[in-house]
Amino acid sequence: MSQSDLNEILSKGLRQLNLAQPLDDKQQNTLIKYVELLNKWNKTYNLTAVRKPEQMVTRHLLDSLSICPYIRGKHILDVGTGAGLPGIPLAIVFPEKQFTLLDSNNKKTRFVTQAVSELELPNVDVVQSRVENFQFPELFDTITTRAYSAIGEMVKQTSHLLANGGVFLAMKGANPVAEIDEMSEKYAIKESHVIKVPGLEEERHLLEIKTT
After folding, report:
1. pLDDT tens-digit profile of 43-55?
2. What would the pLDDT profile of 162-183 be if each residue is shown by its tens digit?
3. pLDDT for 200-211, tens place per residue?
4. What is the model's pLDDT at position 179?
5. Using the 8-state DSSP alphabet, how is residue 143 labeled?
6. Which of 16, 50, 105, 189 is deepest in the core (most CB within 10 A)?
7. In the chain, what are the domain boundaries?
8. Under CATH, what is the fold of the domain 3-211?
9. Are the beta carbons of 178 and 50 closer than 8 angstroms?
10. DSSP per-residue string spanning 161-196
């Protein structure tokens, strides 16, 4: 599939997402370049089960950007970023915010580091570490996770990194009611959102979580 075809899928999806900040041509081209890099590296390093670039646009780019309205503050931490999702797409959309992309997998952080360099994203830091061992000079306003562990475990492992008044954003498929019920009373679910990803029929939910 050509770059122009991928751009058309992305442009159509962005119109449906109706982001508060419309993307310019440079941002859209950078998003497509990220997909091309991911597709290239994926053939050797098996970074994602999604194999076709057009599906990467839908399942990775548009899925990641569907949470744009819920990003808060200036300092964002993406835990278990994997191949850079949702961190890299969000960093492209929000150049004024600072993103830290964290993962314990060396193979994946090598790719993300290379992608950040080639995409020229000065607002992104890449860190290889287990989250429970990670310390940072500043606390984070928003902590994102996508296809991460059980919610309670995620919050427990990352709570030392969240600023007062900050929010956890946990991207999930089906609404994880059982996981929510099992969470410690120390935490409260602020809100559960049904997320509509253009071109994707599968269920998507976003949980906003804050400490009580």
Report:
1. 999 899 999 999 9
2. 999 899 999 999 888 877 777 7
3. 999 999 999 986
4. 78
5. E
6. 50
7. 3-211
8. Rossmann fold (3.40.50)
9. no
10. GEEEEEEEEEEESS--HHHHHHS-TTEEEEEEEE-P
